[in-house]
Amino acid sequence: MDDLEPLDPVYVADILSRLPFVTIDGVINARDLGFYPSETSPGQITRPKLIYRSAELSGIRRRQLKALNITRVFDLRSDVEIRKYNSPQPEIDGVEVLHTPVFQKEDYSPEMMAKYTISALAGINDTTIAEDYALTRVGREPAREMIMARLSKEPLFASNNEAALNMFTCRHETMTAFLSLLRDKYGGPEDYIKNYCHLTDEDVRTIRKNILCSGTSHL
To answer: Which of 52, 139, 186, 202 sits a CA distance of 20 to 30 A from 11?
Structure first.
């Protein structure tokens, strides 16, 4: 199938009904980061129901987060992205929403960088990470019309529909290239978060302890 063409709705519904996807009304591409096997810590998987990722949460409601036991949300979008798309941070009673932009000005995919840096830190192998990234193509499909409308307003894509469609896709090789860059330029996820996020060795050990648990992958 040409990955620039709309996906079969039956196929999309089937994939979205299964892990790692979770259903949250008003939110697209919501996924559980749990159940992925660690290559560096045999017998362990990323802890289910601990960390979720999604697209913007402007339309979410408290009851939906409560059902998933979510009490803290990190909004990784830049101020530019929030203003450009008129999608402000949600204000949700009982839920702490923290604006922690990955990029200060750009509106690239911050959740991609955050999620896959965490996954690599947990010892998930590159192939599994890249395959998970490619699921974003399916996760975005229900919002295809909205996303393409947004891209059409960007000068770079306004007169180049194919370029806009390429932005809509999430190819396996894109993530593979990102992981290679992370290692070649920054020494890998652990060196990156220690040198650029100023975390300590003890912090890294604590992160791994928190995000990994004994278990078998169900994915």
So the answer is: 52
User: Cα separation of 10 and 72, whole Å?
Assistant: 33
Whole-angstrom distance, CA of residue 95 vs CA of residue 75: 12
Residue owning tokens 């791994």 = 208
Reduce the DSSP state of residue 30 to 3 states and report it: coil
Q: What are phi and psi of 215, to 5 degrees?
A: 165, 180
Q: State the DSSP string of 46-103.
A: EPTTT-EE-S--TT--HHHHHHTT--EEEE---HHHHHHTT-PPP--TT-EEEE--SS
| Mean pLDDT (whole number) for 87-105 | 83
Task: Give the Cα separation of 12 and 85 in Å (integer).
Answer: 25
Q: Read off φ and ψ for residue 91, nearest 5 degrees.
A: -110, 115
- pLDDT attached to residue 38: 96
